[in-house]
Write a structure and sequence with these properties.
The protein is mainly alpha-helical. The chain has 2 domains: 54 residues, no CATH class; 82 residues, rbstp2171 (2-Layer Sandwich), CATH 3.30.2220. 50% of the residues lie in helices and 8% in strands. Helix 1 runs parallel beside helix 2.
Length: 173
């Protein structure tokens, strides 16, 4: 079994809990009380037990972003690199979707999904959920149920971002 660095892990736990206190991730602990976390005392006789308790607390936290702020965007960029906001231009649709830049693997999964038994809409939805940062998957799926053509429209916009829809001129030589 790999040796855990409890001090480093506790630092990460503390950072996560501070982000909850700043209010951009939901606290869904079982008792709904605010999270108060005391870092394990590394001079205690059982640091593994302290670590397990910290992980139990973290395991009960829903990391869904509740509001997109500049700080959240900075965090996403640090973690994923390029981040995009796709905003509907239609008067009937008020939707902003935040995604990370698609990888080659994600694009390949999407393209292979459109050639099989799955519908283009189903493949587009899976592709979007793979890239999604905000809103939550549940929220986006509900929106897609109301407007079933949105996944295809959003994937078209993503295609523009990554060059799938680039136009070329063919000349016979």
């Amino acid at each position: 079994m790999e040796e855990l660095n409890y001090e480093e892990t506790t630092k990460s736990l503390d950072e996560l809990l501070r982000s909850i206190q700043r209010g951009y991730v939901k606290d869904t602990t079982m008792d709904r009380a605010p999270v108060h976390y005391q870092a394990p005392d590394f001079s205690s006789e059982n640091p593994e037990k302290d670590f397990e308790e910290g992980m139990r607390i973290i395991g009960s936290i829903d990391l869904t972003v509740t509001e997109v702020t500049d700080e959240v965007i900075r965090d996403w960029k640090a973690r994923y690199g390029k981040v995009y906001k796709l905003a509907a231009d239609d008067e009937d649709i008020t939707l902003e979707v935040y995604i990370k830049k698609p990888t080659r693997a994600a694009i390949s999964r999407f393209q292979s999904g459109t050639s099989g038994k799955k519908s283009i809409t189903e493949s587009a939805t899976r592709f979007l959920l793979d890239l999604l940062l905000f809103p939550s998957q549940d929220e986006l799926v509900k929106i897609f149920e109301e407007k079933p053509g949105l996944p295809t429209a959003l994937v078209g916009e993503i295609g523009d971002l990554v060059g799938i829809t680039a136009n070329f001129t063919t000349t016979e030589l």
